[in-house]
Design brief:
27% strand, 5-stranded mixed beta sheet, Peroxisomal Thiolase, Chain A, domain 1, alpha+beta, 2 domains
């Protein structure tokens, strides 16, 4: 039966929020750094601008502002939040940035931790949070995607510097005994293809004393095989979405909106065509913000919920994909 609960305790969506840094890096400005131009970038990626975090901004700052906005929409008091999961690959503290957000929100009762799954991170975090809520242990959760990829971009590499930006988005989700607005999900990982997209340790060696050596904890820039990532996305994403629709007894005609990870407009178009979903149903803000990794899906959700394009009870099909390689899909109803 369509929309049937997949657990005795279900999930509802109560609020959303986002934060974008003020600094705008346009294609014209990038063309002053590397040999490119606005038309070349837009034709190949669909991106015109991206946001870059200020010197005094970081992942937890951005995530806090997005989460606070989601809490305001949900009308939640800070102490009522039970769980905070921060999806990020660029934490400002490797021991965990989510606890910083918990402290800033004064959500003293909330368990808070980071989850790293790159561009699939928000979707993985959403499903992880849903499992905590459906267990009956927790009632309210904030799921945050926040990334500051500008810190790890080689700004002299034309193939990658045109793609990435910074930002954060969040969802407020709640356990419900009456309904479940999360109808189903599929998640996958293939580490054998993990070398296509990486942010490696620099492998700088040091010596503590005598013959005792160690490896310094410094990271390199993002490395990517763009052609292989493109082939992976346009093949695997339609398959996992089709499987999810079959599992949940939906078809593409039942879907009001498709929200994909905002990686490249050509990927969005190709996935839509393979699923036979009209372009008018594919929501995107890639042109304004570029690829913000774990933040892309909640940024799209927040923008189109607030401008009332996405309405209560709309059916949303979403998919994240990227480094790992990892990918997944979820089917939900807003509200």
């Amino acid at each position: 039966m369509k929309g049937s609960n997949f657990a005795s305790i279900g999930i509802t969506f109560k609020g959303c929020g986002s934060y974008l840094p003020a600094q705008v890096l346009s294609n014209e400005k990038i063309s002053q750094i590397v040999e490119t131009n606005d038309e070349w970038i837009k034709t190949r990626t669909g991106i015109s601008n991206r946001r870059i975090a200020e010197i005094d901004e970081n992942v937890s700052d951005m995530g806090f502002k997005a989460a606070l906005s989601a809490m305001d929409m949900a009308n939640w008091a800070s102490e009522s939040v039970d769980l905070i999961i921060l999806a990020t690959s660029t934490p400002n503290d490797l021991f965990g940035s989510a606890p910083m957000i918990q402290a800033k929100l004064r959500a003293k009762n909330a368990l808070a931790f980071d989850l790293t799954a790159a561009c699939s991170g928000f979707l993985f975090a959403l499903i992880t949070a849903s499992q905590y809520l459906t267990s009956g242990k927790y009632k309210r959760a904030l799921v945050i995607g926040s990334d500051q990829l500008s810190s790890y971009v080689d700004w002299q590499d034309r193939g990658s510097c045109i793609l990435f930006g910074d930002g954060a988005g969040a969802l407020a989700i709640e356990a419900s005994h009456d309904q479940s607005n999360l109808f189903g999900f599929n998640l996958r990982t293939d580490g054998e293809r993990g070398s296509f997209l990486n942010l490696y340790n620099k492998n700088l060696n040091g010596k503590i004393i005598d013959q005792i050596k160690f490896r310094k904890g410094e990271f390199s820039n993002i490395s990517m095989n763009g052609q292989e990532v493109y082939k992976f996305a346009v093949r695997e994403v339609p398959i996992i979405i089709s499987d999810l629709l079959k599992k949940t007894d939906f078809d593409s005609a039942d879907v009001d909106w498709l929200i994909l990870h905002q990686a490249n407009q050509r990927i969005l178009d190709a996935v839509g065509e393979r699923l036979k979903i009209n372009k008018d149903k594919i929501l995107t803000n890639l042109n304004k913000y570029g690829n913000t990794s774990a933040a892309t899906i909640p940024l799209v959700l927040d923008e189109f919920i607030r401008n009332q394009k996405i309405k209560k009870n709309d059916i949303i099909l979403t998919s994240g994909f990227g480094a790992g390689l990892s990918w997944g899909a979820a089917l939900l109803k807003w509200g």
